[in-house]
Each structure stands twice: as structure tokens, then as C-alpha cells.
Design a protein that fits this description.
The chain is α/β, with parallel strands linked by helices and 569 residues long. The chain is 36% helix and 19% strand. An 8-stranded mixed sheet has the order 13-22-21-14-15-20-16-19, sandwiched between helices. Helix 6 (126-135) crosses helix 13 (337-351) and helix 15 crosses helix 18. GO terms for molecular function: catalytic activity.
Length: 569
């Protein structure tokens, strides 16, 4: 039996994950502790936090597992930089410095930073780490595994045959042809930040129509074998990682949208940009569907696991569930680069004879919140804090009264979705709640939707869907019933769908208690659930973060475990 710490770092969303004797004990993104959004740095704080939670020291570890092969990545970067000279000459010094600096020596830096012998630091292929992060915590003994992201060492898309704890690579599409980089380039074209704005593009898509398919046939095309190719002239990911697209894309689609300009769909150009987003989303879904069907043919499996950053596209996941021919689909909640830390840990544990872990039931894999410390800090700040016997009952009554409640209870979440442990909760009925949330708290674009969380057994009352393997982790969408859209006005998107979370007591007990109390009071057991953070901030982790959020943002109440703070009327 082994104790293994997995690490992902040096691209974006660095993380650590701890597996002990075949059990996933803790998984933490570095941003939660550093308070730097999408922190890519070596996640030593997250690593030590995982160990402390388990009562372990670095010397107790049998292995530290890194999620990719640094020298293989260096080789790919050098080959492509040299192959595309002189186009890449501006990017060459920076890319080379980045690879030959902290990235190439990351295994040594982990050994030194953690105080672990160098021979205990191992590494795995990037896409294999992703594939393991999905298959090995899924509920399936047999599954096709589809990994789609920007790029690992060389692969951008891979198909695997997963059997038990074994993964066999069947097919790949390699850099520079990449769906992740396609979506990133169009994200930049639309004026959003790469590696952060992709969610915005997905939300924007509902405001447009896929009218530009003819243009996109010149940007990306399906090949006859279920794979795809990019027109590389439209992209700049080999020469300009920040911009991501080239002049040919602007010749096809018009000039890029100015970053930061307020959106106004009365403007013809903003309607055009919405059509770009809608077409991009539709084309991405078509390609993913072709890849998933290819995976079905290659493996003969009835179940599908998805990983990689593109697997966080909830709209695409819903279409794969409906049309790809699989009976069940699973997406690990931290499907992006953070999830690679978990996959690497699981691979290393498997190599030391550990059993495959139980299926992942909850994303609450972070640290618990310290109510005693929150009470002390609140007292020092003179905040009107009080203890309550039944926090869920108080939250339910506040939500029913139209209040916005910051809800910090239990261990914080693994992945980008707040699932009730670090959430802002509100009544889902009134669209004005959405506007208030967007304008005063989240400070984000008005077209971005909020998600509903519903008691699992009541899902069919409000949605044309049933709970599945994705809905507990909010990684898919469902159509809102026509008869209930007026009752879910703040969480129903323009296209009539919602990014749904179904809630069971075993998975999210604190949020389940709130929803059950709402039902007991005669209200719909549904809340608007969005992440507990402000614009540009990581999701809240500890007591200090929750209180700092309270002081900066105009929410009506804050609950930290059994502590309640309310604003005066």
C-alpha cells in the first residue's frame, strides 16, 4: 500500500492531490491558498496542505508523481519553434527560457521543495495522467476515455481503451492541431483572456446563431477518420501564445473584438461576435461527437470518460450524452490541468500495487473551514457574528426571502465549480437576482448564466432530464421544463438550458440540508448556486478569505459552519 502525492504545475491551474492506500484523501488547487487566480506555480502550499490534512510528513511519501514528461515537452517545443522559423523567432527566446528554466527542472525542484529524495519523484505522460484522472475514479470498470485539451507533450487529443485500472492508447491528434487551442484562439479573438474566458464564450454562444459554418470550414475541418485539422494560418499558438490567432482569422471573421468593451447586443458587431461564439460551439460539438463515436467503435465500450480542459464544456458534454451512443458519461470535476495531479497520483499508486479507488462521490476534497478562527476574527473586526443551531434552516429562510447568502461549510471543492461548500446561494425565481449578482458581486458580463442546484429526487419536476454521472459535478446541461422556466428565471439561460447540479446528501450534505429545508417550508427545492468569489478572485478557501469576501461584497448574509453574519436592514 502506498502514499503518493500527485502534482501538476507550470502551465495553469497548478494542483496537488494525495492518494493513500488507494483512497483519494485530498486534492487542492494552488490558487485557493495563494489567492492568485489560476496560479501556475509549483504548488508547494497545496502539497503541504494535503499532507497536513492527512497527518503525514513528506518523508512518509512513497512517491511524488508529476503529471507530464518535462524533457518530452521541451523536445516538442524546440522542434516546432525550429520548424517554423522565421515565423517563431519572436517567441523563441521566451519559450526557450521558460522551458529551460523552472519547467525542465521541475522534478528536482519538487524534490528540494518538499524534502523528498529525488529517486522518489516520478513522472507520467500528460494525456495518460488526464485519462487516469477520469477512468480511475469513474463508476465504470470498462470505458472509452477521450482526452481533449490544448496540448501535453505532443498530443492534443487522445482516445484510450480503459479496462479496470489499465489504459491503452488507441489514437491521437497531435499539436499543432488542437481543439483546446482552437477554442483558446477564438476566445482571444472575442476579447477574452485565454485560459479564463472560455466559459464566457460558452455562455455567449446562446446569444448568437451558428450562421458562420462556411467560414469555419476554412478554419477547422473533420477528416475522414473522425479526426480534425486546423488551418494553421488562422492561428498563432506556435508564435504568439498570448494572442493565439493569426491575421488569416481576422480576414475571415473580421477584426477581433476590443478586450474590455461593454457588451451591447443592439450593436451589429456584437451580434456578429455572438454568432462567432455560437458557430464555434456548434463546430466544437460536431468534432467532439465524431471523436466520441470513433472511440465507441475502437473500444466497443458502453461508457465514456472525458478529461482535459475541453471536457469542462458542459454544453458539449450534454450532446455527447445524448448522441454519441454511450449509455453513461463521466467527467471528473477538475477535468483541466489541475486534474492531472490526481491522475499522476493514481498512476503511481497503481504502479505500487494499490487497488483502484472507489468511484468519486464528492468534490469536497479540500480543507475544512475553521469556524473557531472565523469567530475570533469576526469578533476582532466587530462584526455581528452569532452561532445558530441549524445553519441550513437559516440559509433556507434567507434564500426564500430573496437574500443572497455566502455559504462556506465543509471542505472546499476540487475543480472550478462551486458545489455548495463555497457557494453564493439565492432564490432562482427572479431574473433581477441574476442582475444583482452580476452587477454588484460577480462584476461579470450580463450574458453569463448562473446554475441551479436541485434535490436529486426532484430533478424531473423542473428539468427534462434525470440525474446522471455528470449532474452531481455540474459538468453538463439540461433543458428547463417550459412549465417551470418562470420559477427558474434567474438560472435559465437564453437557450432554455441550465448547467445543472443534482444534490444528494451523501455527496453534498450541507447543500442538501438547505434544499430539504426549502422543500419543508413549501418552496421549490432549487437554489441559484454560483462560486463564492468576486471578479478575478479564486474561490474562497479559508475563514480569512470568507470574511474578506464579506467585507468587500454586498451579500446579505454569510454562513461559516454554524456562524451567521447578517447585514442590518
Amino acid at each position: 500500500m502506498a502514499r503518493v502525492l500527485g502534482i501538476s504545475a507550470h502551465y495553469h491551474d497548478a494542483a496537488a492531490a494525495l492518494v493513500v492506500d488507494g483512497e483519494v484523501v485530498a486534492a487542492i488547487q494552488e490558487e485557493r491558498l495563494s489567492r492568485i487566480k489560476n496560479d501556475p506555480g509549483l504548488p508547494l502550499a497545496a502539497a503541504f496542505a494535503c499532507l497536513q490534512h492527512a497527518g503525514l510528513q513528506p518523508g512518509d511519501l512513497d512517491a511524488v508523481a508529476f503529471y507530464e514528461e518535462p524533457f518530452a515537452k521541451l523536445e516538442r517545443v524546440l522542434v516546432h519553434l525550429l520548424r517554423h522559423l522565421p515565423r517563431t523567432w519572436r517567441a523563441f527566446p521566451r519559450a526557450l527560457a521558460g522551458q529551460l528554466g523552472s519547467k525542465i527542472w521541475v522534478l528536482d525542484h519538487l524534490s528540494e521543495g518538499l524534502g523528498v529524495a529525488r529517486d522518489r519523484v516520478v513522472r507520467f505522460d500528460h494525456h495518460r495522467s488526464h485519462a487516469a484522472s477520469a477512468l480511475l475514479v469513474s463508476p465504470y470498470e470498462r470505458a472509452a476515455v477521450l482526452v481533449v485539451d490544448g496540448v501535453g507533450e505532443a498530443h492534443a487529443t487522445t482516445i484510450w481503451d480503459g479496462r479496470g485500472d489499465d489504459l491503452r492508447l488507441l489514437a491521437s491528434v497531435d499539436f499543432p492541431h488542437s481543439l483546446g487551442l482552437l477554442y483558446a484562439g477564438l476566445t482571444a479573438f472575442l476579447g477574452f483572456a485565454v485560459n479564463e474566458g472560455e466559459y464566457k464564450v460558452m455562455g455567449l454562444a446562446a446569444w448568437g446563431q451558428p450562421r458562420l459554418r462556411e467560414h469555419f470550414q476554412k478554419i477547422v475541418r473533420l477528416t475522414g477518420d473522425g479526426a480534425y485539422e486546423l488551418d494553421l494560418a488562422c492561428f498563432a499558438h506556435m508564435s504568439d501564445a498570448d494572442l493565439g490567432f493569426g491575421p488569416a482569422l481576422e480576414r475571415l471573421l473580421g477584426p477581433r473584438r476590443p478586450p474590455g468593451r461593454p457588451w451591447d447586443f443592439e450593436r451589429a458587431d456584437d451580434r456578429h461576435y455572438a454568432d462567432v461564439a455560437a458557430t464555434l460551439q456548434a463546430v466544437l460539438e460536431d468534432i467532439l461527437l465524431a471523436l466520441a463515436r470513433k472511440a465507441r467503435v475502437l473500444t466497443g465500450a458502453d461508457h465514456l470518460c472525458l478529461a482535459g480542459g475541453v471536457a469542462l464544456n458542459a454544453l458539449a458534454n450534454a450532446r455527447l450524452q445524448a448522441e454519441a451512443g454511450f449509455s453513461r458519461v463521466f467527467v471528473q470535476p477538475a477535468a483541466g490541468d489541475a486534474g492531472g495531479a490526481l491522475g499522476a497520483a493514481l498512476l503511481a499508486a497503481k504502479g505500487r500495487g494499490d487497488p483502484r479507488p472507489a468511484p468519486l462521490r464528492s468534490a469536497a476534497l479540500g480543507l475544512p473551514i475553521d469556524a473557531a478562527r472565523a469567530h475570533d476574527i469576526a469578533g476582532e473586526l466587530g462584526l455581528p457574528v452569532r452561532r445558530v443551531d441549524d445553519p441550513a434552516a437559516h440559509v433556507a429562510r434567507l434564500v426564500a426571502a430573496g437574500k443572497i447568502v455566502a455559504h462556506a461549510r465543509g471542505r472546499f471543492e476540487w475543480g472550478p465549480r462551486a458545489l455548495g461548500q463555497r457557494s453564493l446561494l439565492a432564490c432562482p425565481r427572479d431574473p433581477a437576482t441574476r442582475e444583482r449578482m452580476n452587477r454588484l458581486i460577480k462584476e461579470r458580463e450580463p450574458f453569463r448564466p448562473f446554475a441551479p442546484a436541485v434535490l436529486s429526487e426532484r430533478t424531473g419536476d423542473f428539468f427534462n432530464a434525470a440525474p446522471d454521472d455528470m449532474t452531481p459535478f455540474m459538468t453538463t446541461t439540461a433543458r428547463v421544463r417550459d412549465a417551470t422556466q418562470s420559477r427558474l428565471g434567474a438560472t435559465t439561460h437564453r437557450d432554455g438550458t441550465a448547467r445543472l447540479q443534482t444534490v444528494e446528501a451523501a455527496r453534498a450534505p450541507e447543500l442538501h440540508a438547505v434544499l430539504s429545508e426549502l422543500a419543508a417550508l413549501g418552496h421549490d427545492p432549487v437554489v441559484l448556486n454560483t462560486s463564492l468569489n468576486g471578479a478575478g478572485e479564486p474561490i474562497v478557501a479559508g475563514a480569512e478569505d470568507a470574511l474578506a469576501f464579506w467585507l468587500r461584497h454586498g451579500v446579505d448574509a454569510l454562513v461559516i459552519e454554524d456562524l451567521l453574519i447578517e447585514r442590518s436592514p
